[in-house]
Design goal:
The chain is α/β, with parallel strands linked by helices. The chain contains 10 helices and 10 strands. Pfam families: HTH_1 (PF00126), LysR_substrate (PF03466).
Length: 285
């Protein structure tokens, strides 16, 4: 039989049945139903003009023809599998990506599974970092940052504007409808954006909130976790609480306002096709 006429699906099904000894296990490996495997085996018997199995379906006994055919098929599929794996290893590309820590934890990492499923040959090696980017001194291929720029020495792709607003547990915000009632609640702060409340109130045309006491956190991530836990109200970038809002863990009844900053992908010049693919995916996410 010439190569172009080989019933490859039927041969795969037969080889899996021989290897596992059961059609059910073969079906599970191939991701099809038991009856589909049975049809493939019957079709192969018709093509070859020989009987391949005897006995009931749950106690299959390979025929002499089946035992003669199986070693060649197994060797052939093993060679194909090894060749494909070798090619994937050769083509696999690793990207070193630097991302601000809270954005990595709350936005990027939960979405990376989608990128890896679509592009299994591109490995993302993620490093959490918040400082300036200097591709001449740092080993990253890409960096994701938030700020106003400029971004010298990098190819820049804008992701989305930075929009922030007050968020808290829905039950904490029940009945809160005015600036006064919001500002009377415990406020959460972070050292990385100490003027966040003042900036947001100014953008909304509200009066200066004053110090208002509250609780200060060392890290943005800790402040957001405090808001989710019900400790108070935090001024948070929308992108960092998007999943919490969708899940109902947080509410933002007063909306978000632009800060003038923007989230960007900074790409090392000449970083190649894999970096371009990842950048395009980020821009669409």
């Amino acid at each position: 039989m010439k190569r172009g006429a080989l019933p490859l699906n039927a041969l795969r099904a037969f080889e899996a049945v021989m290897r596992h000894g059961q059609m059910g296990l073969a079906a599970a490996e191939l991701g099809v139903t038991h009856s589909a495997v049975s049809r493939q085996v019957r079709g192969l018997e018709e093509v070859l003009g020989v009987r391949l199995f005897d006995g009931p379906r749950n106690r299959l006994v390979p025929s002499e023809a089946a035992r003669a055919l199986h070693p060649s098929l197994q060797e052939g599929f093993d060679l194909i599998e090894a060749g494909v794996a070798r090619t994937l290893r050769q083509e696999r590309q690793a990207l070193d990506v630097s991302c601000t820590s809270t954005l990595a934890m709350r936005w990027l990492i939960p979405r990376l599974v989608g990128f890896q499923a679509a592009h299994p040959a591109i490995e993302i090696r993620l490093t959490a970092a918040d400082g300036p980017v200097d591709f001449a001194r740092q080993p990253f291929d890409l960096a994701i940052r938030v700020g106003r720029g400029p971004w010298p020495g990098a190819e820049v792709t804008e992701l989305f504007p930075d929009c922030s607003g007050p968020v808290a547990r829905p039950e904490l915000l029940a009945g809160v409808e005015t600036p006064e009632s919001l500002l009377a609640l415990p406020r959460l702060h972070t050292k990385t954006r100490p003027t966040a409340w003042e900036e947001w109130c100014r953008a909304k045309g509200w009066p200066d909130p004053g110090t208002g006491g509250g609780r200060e956190f060392e890290h943005f991530y800790f402040m957001l976790e405090g808001a989710v836990a019900g400790l108070g109200v935090a001024i948070a970038p929308e992108v960092l609480v998007r999943d919490d809002l969708a899940a109902g863990r947080l509410a933002a009844p007063f909306g978000f306002a632009g800060t003038g900053r923007r989230y960007v992908v900074l790409r090392r010049p000449g970083s190649g096709r894999a970096a371009a693919i990842f950048t395009a995916w980020l821009a669409e996410s």
